[in-house]
Amino acid sequence: MSKRKLLIHEVFEQAKRESGRETKSGIATYLWTYFEEHLNYIISDMDSLSDITRPL
């Protein structure tokens, strides 16, 4: 597994544990909100985040 895939996998696994959500969409929503609230990083379109859920 490439380092990029491993990093994305680990981020989603941690978000899954923290949020209690199971679907990729639910986890992506959690991450989107987390980035905005904790890192002051605003993603302009939810589709931008869903791109990382597609197979690489």
Account of the 3D structure:
This protein is mostly helical and 56 residues long. The chain is built from three helices and no strands. It has helices at residues 3-19, 24-39, 46-50. Helix 1 (3-19) crosses helix 2. The longest helix is centred in the first third of the chain and has 17 residues, at 3-19. The chain is globular, with a radius of gyration of 11 Å.
Pick out its properties.
0% strand; globular; 56 residues; 68% helix; mainly alpha
Q: Looking at the chains present, what oligomeric state does this protein adopt? A: single chain
Q: What level of helicity do the residues show?
A: 55-70%
What is the global morphology? Answer: globular
- Helix run count: 3
Our estimate of the beta-strand percent is under 5%
Distance between the termini: 11 Å
Strand tally: 0
- Mean of pLDDT: 82
H/E series: HHH
Major β-sheet profile: none
Q: List unreliable stretches of 5+ residues.
A: none
Rg from Cα:
11 Å
